[in-house]
Amino acid sequence: MRHCLPSTFVLTALLATSAPLPASEAGAADRAFADRVAACEAASHQSPHPFMRDFTIEHAVTGETDGTCGYTQSMPGGMRMECALSEAGREGLAAEFREMAEGRMSGSSQEKKAWTGECEIVTADGKRLKVGPA
Fold it and tell me: Which stretches of the chain drop beneath a pLDDT of 70?
């Protein structure tokens, strides 16, 4: 049974087995990861949590399965978000990483981007909760 997740911040992943992307300049790693998301190429990336200073988000693209692209991100409290992204979903998420690279990321925990409708939160006890718009 699926449950709706209350309005919470949803941009938070598991480590991928691939090596982290290099960051030789500010934003370079975000841009490189955005390209990997858009292409659905296995990659991992770390970013600071926007609200919890001591938490680092682990993002991972796991590759294509059954016509969708696997993406995960770690979340506080032992939770993770798991996504099966369509091409449009990949482009939406990649756009957010590009915004972060340019320092233009905006929004709130009340906003749910369209791509989040392709995701679920997996709680620490294994329950699955729907994230974004259906």
Answer: 1-26, 104-111, 134
- What residue type is assigned to position 115 of the chain? W
Alpha carbon distance 1, 5 (integer Å): 13
Closest CA to 33 of 96, 121, 82: 96
Lookup: tokens for 41: 């190429």
Tokens (6 digits) for 78? 């032992």
Cα distance between residue 96 and residue 103, in whole Å: 10
Q: Does the reported pTM lie above 0.90?
A: no
Residue 6 near residue 81, CB atoms below 8 Å: no
CA distance 38 to 98: 11
Helices (H) then strands (E): counts for the chain: 2, 7
